[in-house]
Amino acid sequence: MKVGNQTIKFKNSPKIFETSSIVGPKEMQGPLASHFDMHNDDIFFGEKTFEKAESRLMSDCINNLFTKASMDASRIDYIFAGDLLNQCIASGFCIRDLNIPFFGLYGACSTFVESLILASSFIDAEFANKTVAATSSHFCSAERQFRMPLEHGNQKSPTAQCTVTASGAALIVPKDYSTTTGAYATYATPGKIIDLGISDIMNMGAAMAPAAFSTVMTHLEDTGRKADYYDAIITGDLGVLGSEILIDLFSKEGIDISLIHKDCGKLIYDDSTQDTHCGGSGCGCIASVFSGYFYKLLKQGKLNKVLVVATGALMSPLSSLQGESVPGIAHAISIENEVV
Description:
The protein has helices spanning about 50-70, 90-95, 110-125, 140-145, 205-225, 240-250, 265, 270-275, 285-300, 315-320; strands at about 1-5, 5-10, 15-25, 40, 80, 100-105, 130-135, 160-165, 165-175, 185-190, 230-235, 260-265, 280, 305-315, 330-335. The chain is of the alpha/beta class. About 55% of the residues are buried.
């Protein structure tokens, strides 16, 4: 059911039944290392190329999800997945072996929540009984595609972020599936493209923050909720600078989110020891941090109401070379331990 201008209210409150997370070696040196299900110290994940490594990364993550949920691929109705590579090849080559109907998605770093919204919508509309949402990113494959080959050794600006090598996946089922309770999807607010003319591809936080502000404000207006209704407003990868901008934008509206705003790009690394500048980014950033960290806090009852907001910079190397700006987008999904 549509509520307000952009928001969907899930009438049947789909349940996020289980999640899975896997990260690379750099992420295992960060402050959230103990929360991830799996990791690999080999940046190639046993493969011959970085692109194949990313596909293996997602494959390991999804198979771990099936193991944790005591389920196999044959019981999944649809899978919604995406990544940062051209034509979503990390997802496509991973899922070709699973024999599951596949929706390939691209929303840049906002793809994980985009996939959660669509996977939840299929459950809510009773088009499916079990769906999977998954995304991945890999530092080396993303650097090669979007910036410079690693061998170039180019310096990054202070506003740049580090693409997270990680994957996250979630299994969504009807609310009455099993006796477990909690982690219900209650509302979703798909975002609009917001472009304020930022053209520096090394400053994605500034490009994405206005989109996050627009989507969260719209969500609050559509639902009639106040920001402090939520225990946490979790953004994907605004990073240090983008998070500051988001807090400032809300402050100008008389709303203080500084105590409840959590950004996955800030949480996954320790810049004082890892030299990640403005933090993490990539489809795998919010996917792994939500699946490995925040989902567990929900299941433990340490958080009960969260708004998960994935942000994306909708640019490509081609658009940047042609002098285009960096359009931002943000999608939000409300996840709560009680059905509303």
